[in-house]
Amino acid sequence: MYSSVKVQKIHGWRKLLLYPLVLCLKLFTLTIRVRPTAEMDAILNNCPDPTVVAFWHQNLFLIWKINYMLKTTLPMYGLISPSTDGAWLSAFFQIFNIRNIRGSSKRGGLSALKMLQQKLKEGANVAITPDGPRGPAKHMKRGVPLLALQTQTDIFLIGMHFSSYWKLHTWDGFIIPKPFSKVIVNGKKIPYEEFKDLSVDALRTKLEQALDSL
């Protein structure tokens, strides 16, 4: 159960260390031109209902900025690992007003899934990296399709293309755009009506292919 999983958290002066980092990140990002495609822009400007948002883990660097571009009053919840790494990420995203549910496919997954279902029913968006937190990279796990099917919720897929970037030697090939580079952000909205009759595994395959194509 989720309550039996030890959830690591950042407290006190350690959390204060994040604020200079956030300031540096914002200044750094000012040098980057983030441009949504026409399809992405249409989605960003018309997303009134709770949605499951999915993107590959390697694109996590700029997702806070994409959240700012989303024209909605709905709160955003992210699924973040209960590990120490997840604790820093959780505290970091809270500064950007992205709330979180702590859990992963291997630790507290079932309880975290139920909590995400509840947030969607309460009228919030939820964001998941479907290949996280440890991979394999770009392999869609069952969480996103299961969550969307059980809550009868639309799915919003996000992909990014970088004109110039650094790629870290991590399991996900984490991408950091270089200063003064351009990032094209593409999106695809898949309404529940289009996949309601699919099985979890069939939808998983469909979503993995769609996300790879963005």
Describe the structure.
With about 210 residues, the chain is an alpha/beta fold. The chain contains 9 helices and 9 strands. The chain has helices at about 10-15, 20-30, 40-45, 65-70, 85-95, 110-120, 145-150, 190-195, 200-214; strands at about 35, 50-55, 75-80, 100, 125-130, 155-160, 165, 175, 180-190. Strands 1-9-6-2-5-3-4 form a 7-stranded mixed beta sheet, sandwiched between helices. A two-stranded antiparallel ribbon has the order 7-8. The N and C termini lie far apart (about 35 Å).
What topology emerges from the helices and strands here?
Elements: H1 12-16, H2 18-29, E1 33-36, H3 38-44, E2 51-54, H4 63-69, E3 76-80, H5 84-95, E4 98-102, H6 109-122, E5 125-128, H7 143-151, E6 154-162, E7 165-167, E8 175-177, E9 182-190, H8 192-195, H9 200-213
Parallel strand pairs: 1-9, 2-5, 2-6, 3-4, 3-5
Antiparallel strand pairs: 6-9, 7-8
Query: Given the structure, what is the number of helices?
Result: 9
Q: Average the pLDDT over all residues and give the rounded result.
A: 89
* Number of DSSP E strands: 9
What is the string of SSEs from the N terminus onward?
A: HHEHEHEHEHEHEEEEHH
Helices and strands: which structural class? alpha/beta
Overall geometry: globular
Largest sheet: 7 strands, mixed
Strand order of the largest sheet: 1-9-6-2-5-3-4
Termini gap: 35 Å
- Share of β-strand residues: 15-25%
Helical amount: 25-40%
> Which parts are unreliable, with pLDDT below 50 for 5 consecutive residues or more?
none
Q: What's the Cα radius of gyration?
A: 17 Å
